Amino acid sequence: MKERIRFGLLGPLEIEVDGRQVRVSSGRQRAVLAMLLISPDRVVSVEALTETVWQGTPPATARNQIAICVTSLRKTFREAGADDGLIETSHPGYILSSRNCRIDLKELGELIGRARLAAAHDDRAREATELFEQALVLWRGRVLDGLGGGRIDDTVTELNELWLDVNEEYAALQLRLGWHRPVIARLTPLVREHPLREQARAHLMHAHHLAGRRAEALQLYRLGREALVEELGVEPGPALREMHRQVLQEEDGPAAAPLGEARAAPAVAAPAARASVPAQLPLAPAAFTGREPELTTLDGLLPGQDDGVLAVAVVSGVSGVGKSALAVHWANRAARHFPDGQLFIDVHGYREDDQPLSPMTVLDQALRALGVPSAQIPAGLPERSALYRSVLSGRRLLIILDDVRSSTQIRPLLPGRGQCVVLVTSRDRLDELAGDYAAVHIPLKVMTPDEADRMLAVVIGAERVATDPVAAARLVELCGRLPLALRIAAARLATRPHWSLDQLTSRLEDRFSRLDVLSPNDGGVRAGFQLSYRELSPEAAQLYRRLGLLPVTTFTGWMGAAVLDVGVNRAEDLIEQLVDAQLLEVSTPGTGTLQSRFRIQELLRLFAWERAHVEDDEQEREAAVARAFGTLLSLADEAHRRLYGRGTLLPHRARHAVALPETTVARLLADPIEWFESERTAVLGLTGHAAQNPALGHSWELIARTVPLFETRNYLDDWEQAALVSLEAARTAGDGLGAAVMLRSLGTLAITRRRYGDAEELLSQAMELLDGRAAGGSGERALVLRNLALCARFKGDLDGAAHLCRSALDHFGHSDDLAERSHALGLLAQIELERGDTEAGIALTREAIRSGEAAGSGRGKAQNTYRLAEAYLRAGEVRAAEESCREVVALTRVQGDRLGEAYALRALGEAQWRQGRPHEAEAMLKEALAVAEEVGDRFLQARTEVDLACAEATRRGGAAVGRLRRAREVFRGMDARSWERRVGRALEKVLAGEREGVVVEAAVLARELAAR
C-alpha cells in the first residue's frame, strides 16, 4: 500500500500528506508529534510528553494541555486528508500508528541494518556502500532542529553519534574497495569538526596514504595526538597507532578489513592448540527476521570495547521463541571479528531423552575442537578448566553455549581475561552470571507483528501473503507470534502450495486442536513446553494449570491465590517460579499501589488448559474458576463501596471466594478506580465466562459493581457488551431481579449516550420486572425512577420529572443508599432550578452534598458540588459558581474522573465569560473541549462550543456564529429541543449584534441560554 504520509526527523521536522507539506506551527504540538514519531507503534505516556514539553516544570493543567495538543494534531492531519486513526489514545498516553506512513528514522534503521548485513560479506561490499549512501542521504541537517527536552534530547544525541558511526563504516567499506578519494572528501570536514574521533582519523590517514599523500597522513596523526593529549590526557588508541606505524614504514595495510580489527599476538602461546581454528557455527537460519534491538545489544559485545573484561551475554526466553536462531544469526554475522575461531556447543539442558552435558564433557569437546590432543586433556575438572583458559588466553574466539540448564553447567567454560565473547542461550535467566561476570541479559519475547509478517513472507513468499493479508495477519496471531510455531505453520504452507492461508488459519482457529497442528511428529511447540513444565514443582505446576483455565489476559497475585486457594504471598512465590521457568511473563511491573501484573502467552495458556484437562478432574477445574470469579466479585463490591459508600446494590451471592487479608484488600483498593482499570479485562473475561457457566455465579452482579469504571473512563462499548451478555444470562436463568438490574444499567448507559428514548424504554421494562416481584428491590426501584426522571427532564416535562424524582426519594428512604439518595436530591435540585425556584434548588443541592458526605462518596461530592455550581450560575451568583467549579476540578482530577473534569471545566469557563473575562474563559473551555472529545461526549462538546461562542461574542470574535450553528445542529440531531431553542435565541442576538456593529453583552447571552 502506498505510504501517503511522510515524516522527516533527520533535520527540521517535516510532514507531508500526499506530497503536500503540512505545517504544525505550535512548538508544543511539534514536540508532542516528535515524541510520538520517535517511538512509532508504541505507547508514549502523558508523563513522558509532559517532561519533554515543559522539561521538568509542568503546570497544573499539563495533562489537559497535552490532550489539547493531540486534539489539534488530529484535526490538522484530518484536514490534510490523513486517516483518523493516525494518533490514538492508549492508556497511559498516546500511540502513533506507522501504517501507511514513511518515517525517515524508521527507514534509516532498516537501511543501516541491511548495509551492515551486506558488509559482513566481502562479495557484497558494493551493495553495502550503496545502502550506506542511501542512509546518509536521509540526513537533511541538525536532527529535529529547534526541538528539545526529555527523550528528544536523548534521541538527538544518539542520532548524532549514529551519523558519525555510519560515516566511519562507510569509509571503511570504500577503503576496502580502493575508493580513497571520496573518503578524503567526506572525512576531512568530519575530522576537523570531531577531532577526537580516532576511527575516522585513522580512515582518513589510510586514504591519504593510499593516495600517496604521506605527509598529510602523518600531519593528521600529529594533530590527532595533540588533541587527545591536550583534551583527554591520553595517547592515541591501538587503531590510530597501527595506522601511524604503517605510514611510517610505507605499508599499504589490510585494506580488505576495517581498521581496529588487526590481530594481536597472543599474550600466552598454546602451541598444541594454535594449529586448530574451529569454525563450528551452524548455518544461519534462512527465515530469520527482525530482532534489531537484540542484535544491536549483541554488537556491543564485539572485541575492542574493554579488552580486560570478559564479554558474556545470556539470551533467555520460552521454548520456541528463537533463542538459538538469534545466537546463530548474530554469530554468523559477527564471525569475521573472531579470527581465532568460533565454538558452538549444545549442552543439552532441556532434552526429552538426554541428560544435560556435564562440565567435564563440554570441556572435553571444547579442548578437542581447539586442537588439544586427547592425551593432553587432564582428568580433573579444575585442571581441565585451567587448560581451557590457557589455550584461549590472548585469542579472539566466539563461544556459543546453547540450551544451558544452569550456570553451574557452564561456569568452568568461561574464559579468563581477553577478547573472547561468550554467548549463552537458556530458558533460565541465569542471574548468577549477571552478578559474577557483569553478563548482559537479553530477554527474548515473541516477535512483533511486523517481524512475524516478514518471517511468514520469507518462508511462503511475499506474493502469497499479499493475496490474503487478513488471513496472514490472523495466522500470525494464532501462532502467538512464536517463531517456532510460525515456522511450523509456514512450512506446512510452503510444502502445500495448493493450500490457501485461510485453509490453515481455519484449522488453527480450533483452540482444541491448535497445538496438534503446531506439534508435528510429537515434537514442535507442545514438546518444547513439556520440557519446561516437567521441571516445575507440583504446586507450581498446579497453579500453572489452573491459570490456564481463566479467560483473562493478565492477572496479579491475588488471582493466583484464588485459583489455588492459598495465601497471596505463597501464590506470588509460585508465580515467580513460573516466570523463572518462562511459562509466565511480567506484563506490567508494580508501581505505587498497583501490583505487578503477569501474562500467559496464548499458546502456553492452551498448553496449561490441556494439562488441566488431563491432570485435574472437572470438579477441581470448576472450583478454581469459581473462586477466581467470587474473589473478583468480592473485591469489586468493596471497591464500589469505597467509591459510593453503603448503597442500594443488594449483597452479592458469590458462591466461592477466597477471603483475602484486610491489609491486602486495602493495598489493592487504595485507588478503587485504578484497581478497576487494572482488572478491566479480567472483569470482561470472567463476566462472559460466568454468563455461559451459571454455576460460577451471577455475572450481572459483577457488572453492576463495575459501572463506575465504565462511566469515568468512558468504556461505553464494554459496558454495553457486558450488560447485554449478563441480561441474556439472567433471562435464561429466570432471574428477574438480575434482568431488571441489567435493563436499568443499559438504560443508564443510554442516558450517558444521550439516547433518552431508548433509555425510557429500557427503564420501563426494568420497572415492569420489579413490579412483578412480590417483595424487595426498593432501592432498585428508586434507581429506575430517578433515571426516568432524567428522561422526563430532558424531554422538557419538568413537572413529570419532579414527580418521578420525589417518588425515587421515597423509595430511597427505605434503603441505606445515602449516595444514590444524594444523587436524586441533586437531580431534583436541578429540576427545581429549571422550574424557576432558585431558592429551593440551592437548598436541595446543599442537602444533596450533606447526604453524599454522610455516605462517604467522594464521587458523589464532586457531582453535587458541580450541581451547586450550576445552581449558582442560574441564580446569577457567578463568583460562587467559579469557586465551586474549581473545587470540582480538583476533586475529579484526584479521582481520575475525566468526564466529570470536563463538565467542571466547561462550567468554570461559563463563569469566567459571564464575569467579563473572555480570554481566560476561552483557554479553560478549550481544555474542556479537548477532554470532551477524548471521552466522546457529543452533548458536552456542543455545550462547550456554545460557551466558546459566547466568550468570543463578548469580545467580538469572528467564530461565534459558526460555533453556535454547529452546536444547534448537534442538539437538533440529539432531539435536545430545549437546548436547540436556547442556542437559536443566542444566535439571533449575536447576529443582531453583528448587523448593528455592537458587542453582545454577557448578561444578554446568559439570559437567553437560561430560559427554556
Structure description:
With 1012 residues, the chain is mostly helical. Helix content is 63%, strand content 6%. The protein contains 48 helices and 15 strands. The chain has a five-stranded parallel β-sheet with strand order 9-10-11-8-12, with helices on both faces. A four-stranded mixed β-sheet has the order 3-2-1-7. Helix 6 runs antiparallel to helix 7, helix 8 runs parallel beside helix 10 and helix 41 packs parallel to helix 43. The longest helix is centred in the middle third of the chain and has 27 residues. The protein is globular and about 105 Å long. About 2% of the residues have low confidence.
Protein topology:
Blueprint: E1 5-8, E2 14-17, E3 20-21, H1 27-38, E4 44-45, H2 46-54, H3 62-79, E5 87-90, E6 93-96, E7 101-103, H4 104-119, H5 125-137, H6 151-176, H7 180-193, H8 198-210, H9 214-232, H10 238-248, H11 271-274, H12 292-299, E8 311-316, H13 323-334, E9 342-346, H14 359-369, H15 381-392, E10 398-404, H16 407-410, E11 421-426, H17 431-437, E12 440-443, H18 449-460, H19 462-467, H20 469-478, H21 483-494, H22 501-509, H23 514-517, H24 524-533, H25 538-547, E13 554-555, H26 557-564, H27 568-580, E14 585-588, E15 597-599, H28 602-615, H29 618-644, H30 662-668, H31 672-678, H32 680-692, H33 699-712, H34 716-732, H35 736-752, H36 756-771, H37 778-795, H38 798-812, H39 818-834, H40 838-855, H41 858-875, H42 878-895, H43 898-914, H44 918-935, H45 938-953, H46 960-973, H47 977-996, H48 1002-1010
Parallel strand pairs: 1-7, 8-11, 8-12, 9-10, 10-11
Antiparallel strand pairs: 1-2, 2-3, 4-6, 5-6, 13-15, 14-15
Helix pairs in contact: 1-2, 1-3, 3-44, 4-5, 5-6, 6-7, 6-8, 7-8, 8-9, 8-10, 9-10, 14-15, 18-20, 18-21, 20-22, 25-27, 25-28, 26-27, 26-29, 29-31, 29-33, 32-33, 32-34, 33-34, 33-35, 34-35, 35-36, 35-37, 36-37, 37-38, 37-39, 38-39, 39-40, 39-41, 40-41, 41-42, 41-43, 42-43, 43-44, 43-45, ...
